[in-house]
Amino acid sequence: MTFRQFVNETSIPKVLFHVFSFSALSGSTFLTILTFSAIGSYGYFFAYEPNPTMLSFEFGLAVYSAFYLGYLGFKFFKPMVKKSALEETAK
Question: Considering all CA atoms of the chain, what is the largest pairwise distance in Å, rounded to the nearest integer?
Answer without folding.
Answer: 61
